[in-house]
Prior knowledge:
homotetramer, 135 residues, 3 helices
Amino acid sequence: MQRPIRFSHCDPAGIVYFPVYFDMFNGAVEDWFTQGLDIDYATMILQRRLGLPIVHAECDFVIPSRMGDTLTLGVLLERLGRSSLQLRINGEHEGQVRLSGSLTVVTTSLDDFAAVPIPDDIREAMKRYQAGCES
Amino acid sequence: MQRPIRFSHCDPAGIVYFPVYFDMFNGAVEDWFTQGLDIDYATMILQRRLGLPIVHAECDFVIPSRMGDTLTLGVLLERLGRSSLQLRINGEHEGQVRLSGSLTVVTTSLDDFAAVPIPDDIREAMKRYQAGCES
Amino acid sequence: MQRPIRFSHCDPAGIVYFPVYFDMFNGAVEDWFTQGLDIDYATMILQRRLGLPIVHAECDFVIPSRMGDTLTLGVLLERLGRSSLQLRINGEHEGQVRLSGSLTVVTTSLDDFAAVPIPDDIREAMKRYQAGCES
Amino acid sequence: MQRPIRFSHCDPAGIVYFPVYFDMFNGAVEDWFTQGLDIDYATMILQRRLGLPIVHAECDFVIPSRMGDTLTLGVLLERLGRSSLQLRINGEHEGQVRLSGSLTVVTTSLDDFAAVPIPDDIREAMKRYQAGCES
């Protein structure tokens, strides 16, 4: 996934303001569902009422990025639990790792905000993705 | 530091969108400098040209917050290095910990983006703050 | 309503990024309801299911603001219709008008997104506010 | 220019939070420079030190958009002055106009924030774009 670094992403020091990366991570998870897993993210949220709240997020910011750069974000499924998963998201520019983050997500009913097991079709799609990454 | 949870902080699931918390953390660091350390943050950035890029950020999101809640953010100086520091930031609502995060900051020259030792006046102010928290 | 201009509000040119002002306007409307009209905004949205979508927004940006400035936002009720209202929001710094904007809001049911007449208690509170501003 | 509507763009009412559109407008202007005018936006800001502060922005929000929609943004050069220009930006979804906004931009030196005439190469590129739109 390519992400152009825009004027609006940058702070008065001229580099990307760090919370913007976490916003990009959320967008990367959306695109990972829709494009990587072939499960439409909007339908999952709005119609299946399955939410993906983040219970832990972290990131190492190795090298700052600036307006005009393009980041390539890659998603790796690090852990697939019963009702949670852990994703690693790396951002690279011209082969150089700029940042490396991790999100822990709990699959949650949007009706009562209780954790629910990852539905079978989503779990299967995740396993296929994981297998594809390893091969 | 009190922070009202606004409509704009919340996502379609009705809870605070997690990158917003990292933005609040940055604001808490600003207020901590200006109010807690008595070192004007804007002057430090704009006139002393001393920047505070984040090299690591993480947060545990324990309980979601919603529009109308008020979070109390507290800053704890966990580690004071030569040219870096680590801050813990907790967010509470009615005595309940809602989230707990950590930022690692490197003091940096905004002219060449190289790390610089924490200036003496800032270090002294941080030590005083730390002593005040412990007593 | 006082609003500190933060690092995160500013762009690489060092001045407030203009969409941030519209976000501040939305926060000013929230505070206007809760503090100026004594009608809790969160309750209105979440429990009465009354929404306030913006159908028109505009702003003249007269003088840029920078990190460390404090803006004073004032809300003026310019027009009170059957199911819509128009608000003028000015931002000043040390007596100088920095920006002047206008929002047109339609009172809307959050169940079917149809316009609904402004409820009587809210209309009365708005009239009282308007009278208070004129006197 | 295609823009996916993301989870993060939407508010607790499930529709795009209006300041997000103004942020999209700024991104559309960036892409218009780089792709439509063939003038690299980042280079213009960072190396030529030519800024484009917005002095007036407005938008009619006709139909709300939701997560999963894709907006097509189109830029029209409505007025080309000596040191300012006015752009109309429309957002459509499946042939339907969802929103229509306008930005007035002043070409400004980032060294002293004074207005400067639009440089000749940029003016020529804008005229070519305008001619292309009309034909």
